[in-house]
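pinging the channel bc i need a second pair of eyes. not urgent but kinda urgent?? the chain im working w is below, pasted from the shared doc
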Amino acid sequence: MSLLQRGIPTIRSYAERPAHPARLQGGYRLRDGGPAALGVETQRITIITVTLNAAADLETTLASVAEQRCPDFEHIVIDGGSRDNTVEVLRRHDNDIALWISEPDGGIYDAMNKGIAAARGAWIGMLNAGTVFHAPDVLAAVQRAGSSGAPDVVYGDMIYIQGDVNEPVYARSGLELLREMRLCHEATFVSRAAYDRYGLYDASYRIAADYELCLRLLMRGASFVSLGRPCVTVWSGGVSDTRLLETSAESVRLLLHHGGVRPALAFAAIQGRRACVRAAFWLLQRTAGKAAHDRLRRRYVATKQLLARYRPR
């Protein structure tokens, strides 16, 4: 069964989509007479920034990308048809941006897929408006790691800022992903080859499609390599921070799809949120049937007691 038959979009399916009638675009690629997408450069890294009505945050991110000391990278910006002065910001930075597109889209992950389809880099990373790289040599480190052993995913840690508190968040891959999302999306770089092989973001997940993609890569046997260092600085207030119930419900759904009942129950236990537990049981009853409710609840309690011994401190 093909990726499209499984409901997973592909680079080709996005590349063949017609432009929105209201599309505005720019960047040095178009100015130089080149197409929006061409052959992939084996050492190039593509950074994709998606944004909507966040012109000031976008300026911050553009400045951070421009400071990267990497011999070969490009920056693509996908705007969802902002009504502030985002387009003016993009035009002002036209010489620094390979390609920018401003048009209505289907949400964050639809915009990311659009950017991936236009990318020329062999490695692709996401850096949302307002997020910055932790140091000027991050992309150079990713380039070195990506050229050693041909991994599918290179990932790093992040610094999470909430108020006056700067907290390092250490990424984990492997079976840790069956417990909860342990990778920082914006510190995770996926190879173009992996997107070709395993597909793009499943935009039916409005908030947790990044988690679903990482879990899909893991379950299909993709290789992950850690940089062991912070890659990005992120401020609190993102979609997954503010819409916790929806994030938890989508996480349970994708764990059911990729890992089965036990990882979904484990996720609910780890989160320790009543809303998450309710969402988990609502979804599990629909999957396993109402008659299994009591059995599932007993399993949940047992799993929660077991995982309490291994809860991260």
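so The CA atoms of residues 114 and 145 lie 26 Å apart. and The longest helix spans residues 244-258. — does that match what u expected or am i reading it wrong
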